[in-house]
Amino acid sequence: MSVAEPSLAGIDLPRVRRWLAGNVQGLVGPVELGLVSGGRSNLTYRVTDAAGAVYALRRPPTGGVLATAHDLGREWAYLSALAPTAVPVPVPVAYCEDASVTGAEFYLMGFVEGRVLADREAGLRMAAEARPRAAAQTVEVLVALHALDPGGIGLGRFVRRTGYAERQLRRWHAQVHAIDAPGLPLLDEVHDLLVRRVPAQPARGIVHGDYRPGNMAFAPDGSALAVFDWELATTGDPLADLGWLVSGWQEPGDELPATTSGPAEAPGFGGRDEVVERYARLSGRDVSELPYWVAFSRWRSACIGAGVEARYAAGHMADDGYREAPAHSAERGERLLLAARDALA
Fold first, then answer.
1. 203 lies in the same domain as 69
2. How many separate domains does the chain show?
3. Helix residue ranges, H only, 179-328
4. How far apart are CA 194 and CA 198, in angstroms?
5. What's the CATH code of the domain at 287?
6. Diameter of the chain by CA atoms?
7. Per-residue pLDDT tens for 93-111?
8. Which residues fall within 8 angstroms of residue 151, CB to CB, at 6 or more apart?
9. Which of 92, 110, 128 finishes a domain?
10. 71 to 111, 118, 150, 205, 324: CA distances (angstroms)
11. Residues 137 and 270 in one domain
């Protein structure tokens, strides 16, 4: 009696298996795929071949994709360009731009076995003596990323001459209106304040767009092994990444929710001031405009949260338990928006 193949969102298993067999050197078929939970944007699958080799496959959601979002071609380009640099990334393996294989482009990369510090519990599971190194490495890798010349590593076609803040404000504002997100009046009010207070943006470095310990893998001693999720990467003011990192760096006793979950509440990771001081010292950058980027990050997080909720509600994401989690997105988003408004007023 044959065993039914598992149903995997966005994966035509026979076609994906054939494509991988024909395009990945050394792969031993057949492969098995399993969903890697944790992401709220692109779908990530663990791919194991018959010889035990492990890869990761990334593809967009099965629907609800807004313009410029979930750009796997961009993610693949950044991953490939960064692989030879000092910024640790998974090994790029193969890219499929033929949407007929499984309904969308996808790519395969090496699977990095490490500790992803996605929340306080993950931070507590890391050995206490390794936590300061993980915190330091988070900043050191960010400094290394921001020291790179995009054109010098083959990313010149992505260099934008317009301001990062202006582009991002237009993009996310359009997207929350496209999904008719709840709480639009407050989203619009904070958007308008951000537009009026955009600082000078002289730098043209690489901006990851979602840089945080939850998008990294660490060794048991706290060394950074890889940075993931480059779909939002672009060029612009590097302080945008620092603002995102700091706005998610929760400290014990904080009343305001973080923009993203992370490990920093666990003892040993240090506080936000230490993150900023280390970044400023190692990078040599002026961080005086950081408060703007923190407020911007809070507004952007509320926009992203509205989009994630809309995709799950419409059934465009795999069933990874998110829909069974406590409903907190709307309240959390409102609190972030109010904090951003207060900081900009």
1. no
2. 2
3. 184-196, 239-247, 272-283, 290-313
4. 6
5. 3.90.1200.10
6. 68
7. 999 999 999 999 999 999 9
8. 159
9. 110
10. 20, 23, 18, 19, 28
11. yes
Tokens representing 246?
């700091």
Contact 288, 275 (CB under 8 A): no
- Give 189: exposed, middle or buried? Use CB within 10 Å, 0-12, 13-18, 19+: middle
130 part of a folded domain = yes
Q: Are residues 66 and 171 in the same domain?
A: no
Collapse the DSSP code of 41 into the 3-class scheme (helix H, G, I; strand E, B; otherwise coil) and give the result. coil
Examine residue 30 and say whether the peptide bond preceding it is cis (omega within 30 degrees of 0).
Answer: yes
d(CA 168, CA 204): 15
| 41 pLDDT higher than 50 | yes
105 with 19, same domain? yes
Provide the domain limits for residue 49.
13-110
Residues 150 and 89 in one domain: no
Three-state SS for 111-161 is CCCCECCCCHHHHHHCCHHHHHHHHHHHHHHHHHHHCCCCHHHCCHHHCCC
Task: Check whether residue 103 and residue 241 sit in a common domain.
Answer: no
**Domain boundary residue, one of 59, 76, 110:** 110
Nearest of 103, 121, 92, 91 to residue 60 by alpha carbon:
103
**Average pLDDT over the chain, rounded to whole?**
90
Residue 180 lies in a domain: yes
Torsional sign, CA 206, 208, 212, 215: negative
Q: Is residue 7 part of a domain?
A: no
Nearest Cα residue to 109 out of 81, 129, 138, 80: 80
User: Looking at the domain assignment, is residue 54 inside a domain?
Assistant: yes
**Integer CA distances (angstroms), 108 to 52, 53, 54, 68, 191, in order:** 16, 12, 10, 21, 37
Q: What is the pLDDT of residues 160-209, one digit of tens each?
A: 888 999 999 999 999 999 988 888 999 999 999 999 999 998 768 999 99
